[in-house]
């Protein structure tokens, strides 16, 4: 059954969120595995541009497609995806949380944290592979660590 444009773009979003896709050809293959043979490369190229997909580094592997995060509210699936795929370690002291990511991924993870609008986070500072999360008071750190680790480990 052919997909309309919205259904096709939703499917592309899902594939990019769930799998490491680094080329349009890989994305086309994933769509064909799902039985969608009537989609071509120019259509995928247009859809990626319209959706706002970007390529980001993932450690030592090739850059992969990711959904650009804009002013929309972050879904829990996006939040979990970022933590599961990019966060390597989480440490804390006092009212500070330090999140270690794969090289090049700290800013994307920090943006997800910022867009999630946690009431007890005053702000984040991101480098290349490290994020400093400033929490309003030390008593709220444990709750945030639980949320972050749940997203990271499922």
Report the CATH C-level class of the largest domain: Alpha Beta
Rg (CA only): 17 Å
CATH A-level architecture of the largest domain: 2-Layer Sandwich
Structural class from helices and strands? Answer: alpha+beta
Which strands sit side by side, in order, in the main sheet?
3-4-6-5
Annotated CATH topology of the largest domain? Gyrase A, domain 2
Subcellular location: Cytoplasm
GO molecular function, one term: arginine binding
Domain Arginine repressor C-terminal: 83-149
Function: Regulates arginine biosynthesis genes.
Structural overview:
By secondary structure, the protein is an alpha+beta fold. The protein folds into 2 domains: 5-67, Winged helix-like DNA-binding domain superfamily/Winged helix DNA-binding domain (Arc Repressor Mutant, subunit A, Orthogonal Bundle); 76-153, 2-Layer Sandwich (Gyrase A, domain 2). The chain is 45% helix and 25% strand. α4 (76-86) runs antiparallel to α5 (106-115) and α4 (76-86) packs across α6 (141-153). InterPro entries: Arg_repress, Arg_repress_C, Arg_repress_C_sf, Arg_repress_DNA-bd, WH-like_DNA-bd_sf, WH_DNA-bd_sf. Keywords: Amino-acid biosynthesis, Arginine biosynthesis, Cytoplasm, DNA-binding, Repressor, Transcription, Transcription regulation. It is found in: Cytoplasm.
């Amino acid at each position: 059954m052919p997909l309309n444009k919205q259904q096709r773009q939703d499917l592309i979003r899902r594939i990019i969120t769930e799998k490491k896709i680094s080329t349009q050809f890989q994305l086309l293959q994933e769509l064909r595995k799902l039985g969608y043979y009537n989609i071509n490369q120019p259509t995928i190229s247009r859809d990626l541009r319209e959706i706002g997909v970007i390529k980001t580094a993932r450690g030592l592997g090739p850059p992969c497609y990711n959904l650009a995060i804009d002013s929309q509210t972050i879904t829990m699936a996006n939040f979990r995806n970022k933590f599961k795929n990019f966060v390597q370690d989480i440490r804390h002291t006092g009212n500070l949380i330090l999140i270690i990511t794969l090289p090049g991924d700290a800013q994307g993870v920090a943006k997800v944290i910022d867009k999630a609008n946690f009431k007890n986070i005053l702000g984040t500072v991101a480098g290349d592979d490290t994020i400093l999360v400033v929490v309003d008071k030390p008593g709220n750190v444990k709750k945030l660590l639980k949320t972050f680790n749940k997203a990271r480990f499922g």
